[in-house]
Amino acid sequence: MKRTIVLALAVTLLAGCASAGSLRNSKPTASYAGPGSAGDIASCVSNAWSTKPVHLESYVLYTGTTIEIHKTENGPAIALVDIKPVSDRTVATYYSNFDEDDTWYFEQVEHCVDVTPPPAN
Questions:
Q1: Most exposed of 7, 39, 65, 95 (fewest Cβ within 10 Å)?
Q2: Could you give the CA distance from residue 16 to residue 75 in angstroms, rounded to a whole number?
Q3: pLDDT, average across residues 79-105
Q4: How far is Cα 64 from Cα 9, in angstroms, rounded to an integer?
Q5: Pair 25, 104: CB distance under 8 Å
Q6: What is the DSSP letter of 95?
């Protein structure tokens, strides 16, 4: 019984990784660059997206932050944004497999990149 539960959990976790990976293998829906920090832009995007009835998952890595949108807690990623520092800018790349109009989501990414000020020196 324990093996079945562990196997089901592993398959679920791998399915989430596979869906995010397949999104990244597709052409990005939009990409934006600005002077704000990756952390500040990610916070802005997360706050905006959290106003919608979707499940968000956020991963902070040494290369930046990824925020995934899922329709349900255990469902596959239907969109994500990778927010990474590149030289003196931060680049936010949005990928989507929404089955409905998701313009609002990538407009929020653009807005956050545009309004987030550069870090104070």
A1: 7
A2: 8
A3: 95
A4: 26
A5: no
A6: E
